[in-house]
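Exercise 3.2. Students should predict the tertiary structure of the chain below and write it as structure tokens, then compare their answer with the key that follows.

Predict this chain's 3D structure.
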Amino acid sequence: MDQPADFSLLNADDGLWANLTGDWTSRGLSDAAKRLRAAMGEHKDARLDLSAIGRCDTVGAMAILDSAPDRLKPGETLKGRAETLRLIDLISRVPKQAAAPPRAPLTFMALMERLGRGLVGVGLDTYHTMAFNGRVLAAAGRLIVDPRRMRWAPFVSLAERAGLDALPIVSLTSFFIGAVIGFLGAHMLAQFGAQVFTVELIGVGVLREFAIVITAVLLAGRSASSFAAEVGSMKMNQEIDAMRVLGVDPFEALVLPRFMALLFTIPLLTFVAAIAGLAGGMMVTWGVLGLNPDFFLARMLDNVGISHFWVGLSKAPVMALVIAGIGCRQGMEVAGDVESLGRRVTAAVVHAIFSIIFIDAVFALVYMELDI
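Answer key:
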């Protein structure tokens, strides 16, 4: 247990000494440092005797230094055990932290410089994206020419992780989304006496938009971040460089299996999400509006049809390519430090979700112009 730090002023034949006792540590210091500083300020000729100190850590050494920074000459104004004096000397050599320079005001030239750097960054990012896409297309072309180059083991493993493992969260989320649409429709349409049209609202909303969007957003959080972290970790550990040295194309070994896995799994997950969303909406209409499942399904077939499902499913391959491409590309851009890995994983998720919303809006405009 730490002994409380303390000191006493003793008059000796050679002058006034401050005799420090106890443990000058972070736990035993208490208010001794403050009292020592006051005493040394009052007695300008007092010297320090550290011989009776039990233990001393960096906190205690800093307290001693702050109390008498001008009386630290061993043998003259300072004495003590060798290990304590070494610690005092070591702490005294640490440079003081300089105050941060004042922040320069944001001038017009500084604003233009920041704008220019941002534009250059966007240009470089676009260039690297196009280069990445070109290498993916080249690897895909080689795979089409020689299908034996396909790596089936990682494809099956990735398809299981991105597809089968995502089924519970995708179906549960879609179920509640369908239920929320049902509640909103039943509440809003009841004001016009048109509660029965809640079925059409659920069918069109889930089949055309929410099933694919919810699936893609969840896979952006799961798969895009996972792809960026996996590829980025291999980049940090120089495993990708080792693959190139061995003559293995990283795009064939790492990127294409991830593209193929999402191309295979997202349509299946979209189908499951659509079924779960309709089930959630059907449960709400049955419980709130009293529309039994037979009526719900018959009205779905008569007034909604299958076309909205195919419209939603047509977005799945594009979403798969975007999610896999963003995740793998961000992983390939990881530098050699953990901070870069964290930034790239975060960027993969944010960029993927933004791209999903943007692409869905583009599809909506296109289908509206085509009257589909």
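Discussion points: The longest strand covers residues 15-24. The chain has a mean pLDDT of 86.
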